[in-house]
Amino acid sequence: MLKARAAVHGLKSYHPPLDNREGLRLDFNENTVGCSPRVLERLRRINYEDLARYPERDPLEAVVAARIGIDAAEILLTNGTDEAIHLICETYLEPGDEALIGVPTFAMYEIYAGATGARVIPVQAGEDFRFPAEHILARINSRTRLIAVANPNNPTGTLAPAEDLLRIAKAAPEAALLVDEAYFEFAGETLMKQWRAVPNLFVSRTFSKAYGLAGLRIGVLGGNVEQVKMVRRVSSPYNLNSVALACLPDALADEAYVRAYVDEVLQGRERLEKELRARGIKYWPSRANFVLMYFGELNSAFIAAMRERGILVRDRSRDPGCDGCVRITLGSREQNERLFAALGQILESKQFLSAAGS
Questions:
Q1: Per-residue CA distances from 143 to 147, 169, 176, 313 (Å)
Q2: What is the rounded CA–CA span in Å between residue 312 and residue 315?
């Protein structure tokens, strides 16, 4: 009988709750208003010849590199951040190697690393989900080949200090340090270009969040030229579809659209944190497009009450250290007003207040 590798049998399954998502989707950190109208117009102009040709990635890598301010040889366009993680794991991990992953965080680091047969070492975040730099440094050894860090982190929204990340990269020169900047536009801090001084550093970004292209699956991985050459050997030359490649220049060109959306998200994030402080609800200050908060035993009741009002939020109770936590994505000004109205109704309802006092 055909059998999958032992490493695959031992993997955790990741099943995001994508079904029954009718309502205002504040549960997946997606762009809540969609992509630039320029992208939609470009989609309308796609014809049969565009779809019949194999996609050509190189010209778009030059466009993206110029936008970031780096050389095209330093980047690889990927099928979302997921493929970037997968390629790094396939390039650098072998059975018996170790991968250090701060938790709680994005589940796919553990899954892709574990699939190679490497041993995944979870490193729990510190108090208030502070980045566990010292604990990661203490776990580095001769078998360490990968260290993965989401920055800002998901689901906590916390930001790891750049000096800590560079210290870790220098302490583990034989390990790839992957810094996932999926929420860069909402944080404004980056380690892009730092691989020129620290050649084992990689930085990934996505066009799924601020740009609203999650359905097209497109991201970018940056790194030292020689190391990116190695990652390219693992990548398919046709990893991106022609529709995504056709739309990306228009998405990049509409900076005003993206900036306006990001500004509304940041305003909403500030107001949500202010509301939570005023109501005495524990939360963790965020540098992303979401906020993680604690409802304890009222967690399920709060999520259900939000759904009754047509708003979806994400239960993060299963993440390490997140029992009783809910994550809420921010969106446009109008959507945020709807969120705040529902939040006030729920937290001031007799049913919720009664449960809170019991």
A1: 12, 15, 12, 39
A2: 10
Last residue of a domain, one of 253, 280, 306: 253
Which tokens hold the place of 18?
A: 């994508």
Phi-psi region of 213 (alpha: psi -120 to 50; beta: other; left: phi over 0): alpha
pLDDT digit of tens for each residue in the chain (358 aa)? 999 999 999 898 888 887 788 999 999 999 999 999 999 999 999 999 999 999 999 999 999 999 999 999 999 999 999 999 999 999 999 999 999 999 999 999 999 999 999 999 999 999 999 999 999 999 999 999 999 999 999 999 999 999 999 999 999 999 999 999 999 999 999 999 999 999 999 999 999 999 999 999 999 999 999 999 999 999 999 999 999 999 999 999 999 999 999 999 999 999 999 999 999 999 999 999 999 999 999 999 999 999 999 999 999 999 999 999 999 999 999 999 999 999 999 999 866 766 555 5
In terms of domains, do 148 and 221 share one?
yes
Structure tokens at 94: 């072998």
Residue 37 lies in a domain: no
Question: Does one domain contain both 219 and 320?
Answer: no
- The dihedral built from the CA positions of residue 19, 154, 75 and 38, taken in this order, carries a sign that is positive
Q: Say yes or no: 10 and 157 in one domain.
A: no
Statement to judge: residues 205 and 249 lie in one domain: yes
Dihedral of CA 233/80/90/72: which sign? positive
Residue 258 near residue 210, CB atoms below 8 Å: yes
Shared-domain flag, residues 260 and 277:
yes
Structure tokens at 305: 């009450």
- 92 with 220, same domain: the answer is yes
Whole domain around residue 302: which residue ranges? 6-30+256-346
Q: CA 47 → CA 22, 50, 219, distances in Å? A: 32, 5, 24
Query: Residue 142 falls within a domain, yes or no?
Result: yes
Tally of structural domains, the chain = 2
Q: Please, are residues 117 and 95 in contact by the beta-carbon 8 Å criterion?
A: yes
Q: What is the CATH number of the domain that holds 52?
A: 3.40.640.10
> Do both 58 and 83 map to the same domain?
yes
Is the sign of the CA dihedral 250, 255, 257, 263 positive or negative?
positive
